[in-house]
Design goal:
By secondary structure, the protein is of the alpha+beta class. The chain is built from four helices and 13 strands. It is 26% helix and 40% strand.
Length: 192
């Protein structure tokens, strides 16, 4: 009994401290990282909340953020979204799925039941290019894309400097393939 009370107190203390971890963050243009318990989005900008304190930054100062609710970083890019096609130069925060020489991004395009996500690809600092969409995507899943010749051709343009990935693209014979896996193989082969 004497050991049980301190043990319970210790477990409670670590639970409270673990729960108070600052999970979300903003990345500013000057590469400062601002951590907080929760992100705030409003017309004045984007900010973080720490306890009762809120700090808002104009969106013009922010280049990215991490929202633990979505478990993915978001990057400020020239918007590839269909509803922004008539607004050249418009920027938007897009979820980044894979970082590396080739980056893979995704964003919800249709929030209704039967939702689908658009996937975008870029190499080095190139403009994002739409590559495919996928229904009901979850970040912990593979990105199974219907094997369409035009998607393979888009991928070939991005991975042309990797013989290993080109061989994989040549041998895809299934009806679906994992886009995420192909980008990861390319990025890991580029590091070698």
């Amino acid at each position: 009994m004497k050991i049980l009370k301190p043990l319970i107190a210790t477990v409670l203390l670590f639970s409270i401290l673990g729960n108070a971890q600052k999970k979300d963050y903003l990345v500013l243009k000057n590469n400062d990282t601002i951590y907080g318990e929760k992100l705030i989005f409003n017309r004045k900008g984007t900010g973080v909340k720490v306890g009762k304190n809120k700090t808002i930054f104009p969106d013009s100062l922010i280049i990215g953020y991490y929202d633990s609710h979505y478990d993915s970083p978001h990057e400020l890019v020239i918007s590839p979204l269909p509803w922004d096609k008539d607004k050249p130069g418009k920027k938007a925060f897009i979820r980044r799925l894979i970082n590396g020489k080739i980056k893979l991004y995704y964003e919800l395009l249709n929030p209704t039941p039967g939702a689908y996500y658009g996937f975008y690809i870029s190499k080095d600092t190139s403009k994002l290019k739409y590559i495919a969409d996928c229904k009901n995507y979850n970040i912990r899943q593979r990105v199974l894309i219907k094997n369409k010749e035009e998607i393979i051709e888009i991928l070939r343009k991005f991975v042309s400097d990797s013989p290993k990935v080109n061989v994989i693209l040549d041998t895809i014979s299934t009806k679906k393939f994992d886009l995420k896996e192909i980008v990861e193989i390319y990025n890991s082969s580029y590091k070698e």
